[in-house]
Amino acid sequence: MRALTLSVALLAALTTSLAQSDDTKETVESASSSSSSDDESKEAWMRAPAGTVAVRSGEDALLTCVVLGARGKPVLWRRARDSSLLTAGGVRVTRDERVKVLHDDDEPLQGPGIRKGGDVWALVIKSVKSSDAGLYTCELNTEPPVRSFHRLTVISRGLTPPEAQNATDSYSANNPTLSTLALSHNYTDCCISANVSRGCLGFCSIQTILEGTGQDPETCQPDFPAIVKCMADGRNHVPCCVQEHVPDICQDVCRGEFTPVTDNIKTHYSCAAYMEKTLACIVEGIELLPSPPEDVEVEPLSEKQLNITWSPPLENTETVTEYIVNVTTLRSFDAHLIDPSESSMRNTSMKMSQPMTYKVPANKTFLVLNDLLPFTMYEISVTSYNIHGSSLPSYSIRSLTLTPGKMKTTAVASAPKLPDVRSCCLSAGINHYGCVDKLCDPTKTFEIGVTDLMICAPWAGVTFGCLANGMDHTPCCRARGLPEACLPLCSGNITNLDFNHFKCLRFMTGYTNCLLQGYGVLPGPPTRLHLTNIDTDFAVVHWAPPNALADTVQFYNLHYKALQLEEDYKTVERVQSPFILEDLESNTDYEIFVEAVNEHGLGEASPRLIFRTQSLALEDEEEVSNAYNVTACCEKVQVATVCMPLCSYDAKMSDLRTLAPLCAQEFHKLLRCGAGGRNHEACCARRGVPASCRGVCAGAPRGSVNSCVSYVGNIVQCFEEGTGILPGPPRELHAVVNHDKLFLDWAAPQDGANATSYVVHWQKVDNNSQPYYYNTLQLDNKMNVTQTMARLEGLDVNSTYHVFVVAANDFGTSLPSSMLLLNITEDTENKEVSGIPSPPHSLSVASHSATWLALSWQPPQFSQPDEKITYTLFFKSPTQLGTGNVTKITTTVPGHTLEKLSPNTQYVVWVTAHAVAGDSLPSETLLAWTDPAYPAFVEPPTINPVNLVVEGSSMTILCIAMGTPTPTISLYISGRLVRQEVTRHMVTVIHNVTRDMSQVSCYADNGYGTPMQASRRINISHVPTIQASGITMAAAGDSVILECRVEALPKPTVAFWRDPSGRTPVIDGPNYSIQLLSDPEESTKYTMRLIIKKITETDEGDYFCHAENAFGKTLRPVSVRLRTAPHHNVTECCTQMNVSSTCIDACSFHLDMDNIMDRPECMDDFEKLMKCAADGSDHRGCCASWGVPRNCLELCRGGPVSRTCALQHARRALACFRDAGAKLPGPPRNLKAHVAPTPHAVLLSWDAPLKNPQTVYLYRVFWRAYGAKVPEKLDTSETSVVLTGLQDDVRYECVVKAANDVGTSSLSQSIMFTTAGQETGAAAAPVGGSSTASAVGGAVACILVAAILLSAGLYYRHRKNLRLKAQGGVAFENPSYLREPNPDTVVNGTVPNGNTANGGNGVANSISNSTAWRQETLQNPSTAIPTAREVDPTLYEELKLGQDGAGFKRLK
After folding, report:
1. Which of 360, 672, 907, 1223 is deepest in the core (most CB within 10 A)?
2. CA 424, 426, 431, 436 torsion-angle sign
3. What is d(CA 603, CA 608) in angstroms, rounded to the nearest whole number?
4. 1191 contact partners, CB below 8 Å, separation of at least 6
5. Whole-angstrom Cα distance, residue 3 to residue 1433?
6. Can you name the residues that pair with 731 across neighbouring β-strands?
7. In what order do the strands lie in the sheet with 968-973?
8. Do 391 and 291 touch, CB atoms closer than 8 A?
């Protein structure tokens, strides 16, 4: 069927298109017969669409495109707003299955220019929606493309009112429809004249509103009053809106009014559901209804008559059937009062009364009102009517009837004639027409311009003399402020004009008035100006006609201004006495004067009159003693103080948004007090509140109120309105039961004496009775009474009854304040029962888990609004027998969470309410189960951004855990607890990420089963950081290795540069080798190495290690220097050390390691060679920093080591010799002992070392008794020292070593001495004896074991040190940090691992061969000297401080 409809529509469209083509037939035929070689795009064309296609929502839309001369080119349909392609040829391209194209591909239709395949392409959109509205493009795929544009309008079905149901209804025959004329209702001109913002003019057209304005309504809120007024166009659309069931609160738009949305809660009401109906009514009314009458004027004729006139309306004038004149008496004054100090507040004989209406036929546009009160203020408006309805009333006019005995002057006498100035000028010989016309006409002198003065200057004396008419008008001109240079014009005595008179043009109006006044043709000043009935915002102004030419006065102009504001005068034109001066400010001084006007102009002004309006007394509203006070109610029920701003009918919406989370538990109290015990459901229904929210209107919602927030303004307006007109609830309900009779008694409402009757409801209760609190307060039986008592008889014995009472009046009813539950038995006699609150209801489980149940319920529906109510919650497990197992919990809010329950357990729950009147019955009983318990399960953390966490940025970590009860999720980063929360989903944002936050763990535990942890390691991308090796010393021809340690993610690209700008790179070649080595243990660390195979002078200088990745680049310098003045000759040292001749060529200025390794015969001389290369300096610190194990460190100061150490670490030792050999000091020389001047002492002296003597800042002296194990030490900065406390008969041995900032030297040559001085020839006996040898052997064994353990520990710590960068560890750029800052220290009284290396000279005298001197240590934790590196920071410090102290800033 739908396909048939579309075919018929297509045929009709095609027929229309062919009919429209008659006038272009020749053009089409010409185009059809043109040569095939012509440009196809020029032949093809499209017919213009017939107009906008308008369809209702849900119907099918058909857009027709006629394409002539397509020549097989495909036709495309597009949606214009987003250029999306819908169809191409006959194929649907869009995914929207509602779209299709209709095209006849079989046989061509008959017609000129129509080719085979058809020229009609129809776009079909099935079941259109509002989003389909807009512009569509039919396009032929040519170059350039040929297009036609088609507009589709979708009309919402809500805009069409229902079908007529009453044939007699004035609207039934004219249902609102959206005709083309109505859709074109464009009131933009009205909006522009009303100063509507340019950006909001889109709301000034009905069609634009329906299609979408593209404007934000919020920004146009200030302009909506003017827009809505223009939209209504003066028509009264309220009857249509009423018929369409638009609530009265939403009918302001139907009247052309708009209620601005403010912070007041009453302005936040919802009318969105009725907006389409309202627009439909306005669209209909624009076509059918007349506009208001125009030019309404009111003229007082006498003390009892007013004459009202108007013009017919501009719109639908011919349909007007009658006019209705509305007359309202506002205020009547005492006519004899003329004292301005009298106030109408004390002399008002009549206040505002009901308006009177007068019908006037359509052929009349005037009305004379008779039998009015004298000197009384009336307000008049006029309304147009036709058969469809009415306009809005015209603007209102206020007018006063005249004082008794006074009549309006109906005839105005003619004013005296003006002198014939024109004849005067002509007789004086002026022949210039322009000069005669302007300068010789006193009524046109104010039009004189500069050009006129210049042209007419020759006749100035004549023209101005004729204008003066023989009189001197100078006093008047001077009084009106004309300057002195212009006064000759006023007297007529002027001989010539010059440029000084041009400034007089500004005063020509005053000059003209002086001329007319001098001629005696203007009226004099009004007399007896005075005021009566001065009020706060208006005053009645009186005056008498002028003494001169009073009969010529046509009207008066009144001028007034407020003195405090220093503003210009405001003018009210064309007024008569008396006049009501309105819109004044209270307690303000005003100045007024009046001018009379006749046919010639303005007369003199009356004297100025100053008066003060009455002070606006801030009178409090009359508070009736029994009026309802919502604030007092909230205080009685103890609403939280923070929520008290919401306890007002004028509460602010901003307060509601702010306090809603805090006051959620207080809303039931606020609603009860807001309703005030009154039933506002009828008002809410009238104002559009849906049925699901009307329980709120009674202060007892039956469910959640969240869905009713949009109607809060509607509800609050009903609350405020109802508490003024509806009766309050009865109080103190009591009953006396006597057999089958029931006597009821109650007290009248306290807050309002407007209860005219009472309704008693009662019902017998059995097992099938529906609970009363689900009903609409209607029980089976009711009885109306006017007294506060009632009697019920004939009740069934042995039955139970529910009873409650409500107050009623003409506007509605109250709510019950309490209920009675009565058992009627035969033996009951005079039993008194008091009313109690109804039980709480709607008990339910809001949420639940394995160990808790969150319960909620609704407060009692029957209770006093200001009654404080508490609740008792009862619960138990059915498995627990006996009443003693019931747990009670008291609360003041209608909700509670039961905690510490057992998993997978059923509980029985009920609740009762408590008030002053008594306890309610229990609520319904609820059976609720807790959830079973499931152990916690946690997923691996989800980290965003994925695989791209950048150092210094932020990352978001999501931990998801399952389990019942809800588990506690803990987030750990690199082992440190960061956050902990009881939840199933925890999102944490970590700011300022550092590279050590690579391990992220989520831990979950809910107390059941085994806790679970899931971890994820992340790579934190960061800019490369470089640690460079500093300065390397080398000799010409040496092989040099320059290294930089790089840490980066992702992997960097590296290069060595010779300049910091990177313009001179080091290229891998014969003499250079560049390597990038990855750390096998840590993937983000690399070693970039530059090997210079044989260094020359050109290779000396600075190199720059460059590393770069996607996040940045880093540059660090590393340097190599050639030794220019070596301190010793290795060849000379080798000769002295008796190195074999076959190996002597390995000794040059520096040892040639390659020469040694290639010749096995040189390994016997290896110790001698290393001794010479060490040059008397201690390089152990350098070697340790580069990973040489402790048991091989002796190699680094020329000492004996194992062959394994020699083979593995000799190259590193030689590199240290080259790097720091030139900086370390040599050993002290010429150590000697001398007799000291004091007993038991000796003086030691020595010479500074030959190598770097100027850098030495400390010497350390070791001495001990010969054969002793424990040496003593002493530090000094001098080259001599006195040892005290010695024994005279004991021989001592002694050594010295030097130290500077870089490191220490080797030990000097040892000497033997006594207190008598140095021994020169005596040889010390070796430490002998088996016991001594055993002791020494044991000590050596212990030392060896300790050395092994220390070596392992040192190696581990060394590897760790290399990984520490900016975390308190050793900086790679300063490897000397690991070296001893001071000479070696004593451990347990010994100098461990020492060496008496004194060059190759041997020992000059025989000394002890004890190994005690060889027991020095590189590092000693027990010494007072600072350790080799800082203590590692704790994990907490690393997390808190992070790299460079950044850390987790959010945790500080």
Report:
1. 672
2. positive
3. 15
4. 1201, 1202, 1205, 1347, 1348, 1351
5. 83
6. 747
7. 976-982, 968-973, 999-1005, 1012-1017
8. yes
- Cα(1146)–Cα(1163) distance, integer angstroms: 12
Q: What is the mean pLDDT of each run of 10 residues along the chain (1452 residues)?
A: 35 35 34 37 64 81 84 83 86 88 62 53 88 87 81 69 38 43 71 87 80 75 88 90 86 86 82 82 87 89 87 90 90 50 39 75 91 85 92 86 65 79 85 82 79 81 85 85 85 79 81 84 88 84 88 90 82 87 87 89 86 69 59 89 90 88 86 88 86 82 75 88 87 85 86 79 72 54 88 84 88 86 73 84 88 89 85 85 79 90 90 88 90 92 88 93 92 93 93 91 92 92 88 82 90 90 85 89 89 88 92 91 64 78 67 64 77 78 82 82 80 76 82 88 90 85 86 89 88 90 83 84 38 38 44 44 34 30 34 34 34 38 33 39 34 28
Q: Quick one: which H or E segment has residue 714? A: helix 712-725
One-character DSSP codes across 1408-1445: ---GGGGB--S--TTSSSPPSSPPPPPHHHHHHH-GGG
Question: What was the pLDDT predicted at 620?
Answer: 43
Q: Is 484 helix (H, G, I), strand (E, B) or coil?
A: helix
CA 1351 – CA 1345 distance, rounded (Å)? 10
Question: Up-side HSE of residue 1411: CA atoms within 13 Å toward CB?
Answer: 16
User: How far apart, in Å, are the Cα atoms of 266 and each of 666, 696, 709, 718, 941?
Assistant: 20, 15, 12, 10, 49
Tell me how many helices (H) and strands (E) the chain has.
Answer: 29, 71
CA distance 921 to 914: 10
The one-letter amino acid at 635: E
- What is the number of alpha carbons within 13 Å of residue 821 lying toward its C-beta? 14
What pLDDT does 973 receive?
Answer: 94
| Sequence letter at residue 398 | R
Given the structure tokens 């720059």, which residue do they identify?
Answer: 1104
SS3 1305: strand
Q: Which helix (H) or strand (E) holds 757?
A: strand 757-765
Prior bond to 965 cis, omega within 30?
yes
Question: Distance between CA atoms of 1350 and 1419, rounded to whole angstroms?
Answer: 10
Phi, psi dihedral angles at 753 (to 5 degrees) = -100, 30
| pLDDT computed for residue 753 by the predictor | 55
> What residue ranges in 849-899 does DSSP mark as E strands?
853-858, 870-876, 887-891, 895-898
- Rounded to whole angstroms, the Cα distance separating 233 from 391 reads 9
Identity of the amino acid at 787: Q
**Strand pairing partners for 1294?**
1263, 1311
Instruction: Check residue 243 and give its pLDDT.
Output: 87
Side chain identity at 1063, as an amino acid letter? R
Query: How many residues can be counted in the chain?
Result: 1452
Reported in sequence order, the residue ranges of 1167-1279 that DSSP labels E, i.e. its strands, are 1177-1178, 1229-1235, 1241-1247, 1258-1265, 1272-1276
C-alpha to C-alpha distance for 1232 and 1243, rounded to whole angstroms: 8
User: How is 233-274 classified by DSSP, letter by letter?
Assistant: TTEE-HHHHHHTT--GGGTTGGGT------SBGGG----GGG
DSSP 506: G
Confidence at residue 1404, expressed as pLDDT on a 0 to 100 scale: 32
Find out whether 756 and 810 touch, Cβ atoms under 8 Å. Answer: yes
- Burial of 1145 (C-beta count, 10 Å sphere; 0-12/13-18/19+): middle
Would you state the structure tokens that stand for residue 709, as one six-digit string? 């927030």
| Close Cβ partners of 1037 (under 8 Å, ≥ 6 residues apart) | 1094, 1095, 1096
* Contact in structure between 529 and 541 (CB atoms under 8 Å): yes
pLDDT for res 428 = 83
- The position carrying tokens 């209920």 is 819
What's the rounded Cα separation, in Å, for the pair 840 and 915?
12
Structure token pair of residue 1421: 């934790």
* Closest by CA position to 740, among listed 794, 782, 704: 794
For residue 309, the SS3 value is strand
